[in-house]
Amino acid sequence: MSVVIVLEGAGPGSFTVAVSPLAELSACLHALTETAHHPELRDWGRAVTANASAELRAGLRRFSPLWSALRWRGFYPGLDGTRPAGPGSGSGPAPGPAPGPGPASGPGAGQGSGVGQGSALEEQLRTVARLPIDRFAELTAFACVNGYTRFDFSRLLRSAAQRAALEHAATALSAGRRELAAQLLRDPETCRADLLAFLDRCRSEFFAEVWSGAEPELTRSAFAVRGRLALGAGRAVGGGSGSGNSRPLSATNPTHPTHATRTTEDLAEALASLSPDSSRLGAPPRVVFDKLHHSVITPARTPVVLVPTRYNAPHLVVKNEPGLPPVLHYPVDAPEVGVTLARSRMLALTDPHRVRLCRLIAREPMTTLDLAARLSMTQPQVSRHLRALRDLGLVRAERSGRFVHYRLDLAAVERIGQDVVRALQH
Length: 426
What we know:
- The chain has about 425 residues and is of the alpha/beta class.
- Helix content is about 50%, strand content about 10%.
- The protein has 17 helices and 10 strands.
- The chain has helices spanning about 20-35, 40-50, 55-60, 115-130, 135-145, 160-170, 175-185, 190-230, 230-240, 250, 255-270, 340-350, 350-365, 370-375, 380-390, 410-415, 415-425, and strands at about 1-5, 15, 280, 285-290, 295, 305-310, 315-320, 325-330, 395-400, 405-410.
- A 4-stranded mixed sheet has the order 3-4-1-5, with helices on one face. Strands 2-6-8-7 form a 4-stranded mixed sheet.
- A hairpin with a 2-residue loop joins strand 9 and strand 10 (about 405-410).
- The longest helix is centred in the middle third of the chain and has 42 residues, at about 190-230.
- It is elongated.
- It starts with a strand and ends with a helix.
């Protein structure tokens, strides 16, 4: 299964990069309740929960289905149907380091575009509070059943059949999901009010400090990604080293094939850089993310919102609920190893010849001639095994005069287990 982003007809204007405190809060909540997913944040999580109030602890248990694998759509920009403004949306140059918390002002303030956490988060919570109750119930029901492709909850509060479907699906998953679904069906307004009070409590108890440290980094990432998305268009318009007539034909004609190809290639490269489990395909041009659900996103018809995260790494969360702008919640530092590479590295070490070879070069660097003699193999056979291991990043070559010595990258081998765990969470 995969998420496919079809780039035919898309341009830089088909994407918005928005810094969102509410999205980052959802990432923090996920890390607090799914500690096995984020071992690097375990000490931080223990400190938060150790100092948490009884109300915060209760909310972490009660609302945990909202930040599990699926992730509730209410955490993300564009919830009210408007396109969020993002860093760099104006015509001026990108700023230096983002300012710390302060009063919100200017375009995009409601989405946390380099502004204070307090006002930005409060505005996002007000958007959730203003959401029609039927829409709130629909999106929350999707989170309760951990999916939306097989369900229609658009009339949940008025349809006995949809209510029964929610109860049945939630019961089959977990007690927490069953309880949250029951609360939603019993009194959706109170459920929303309690959720908003819990999120505001998170802000006061731990998230204000988190955001003051995370916002500058997220803002820098947003500007960088926005720049990569716009690279092709900027290169076409500003191409050429001279003035006047030196500009390429594509600069004066955005529909020219050269302009379109450059723009599409740069869009594909920028999107693929968000995850190691991505691939670029043609005819039509598209980027494919290896995920556990299937979705097709067409930015030329429905603009996409990109949201950077620090606390959600290594996850790349893709949201594509009906009637709302698609969202890619991407880590500011994408992992280097994805599912495909992690699997290939494990498979490479199941070959007994390669295991013996690796044992030899783990002790000391050796040449192909030495290895062939020690392993009773031909040099071409040894070279093929070494080439495969080098392509996977497990072996390094060191030249010394006329000889090339091969050494096992012990650090890369040591990380295989950790890389597998992280890759399975992308």
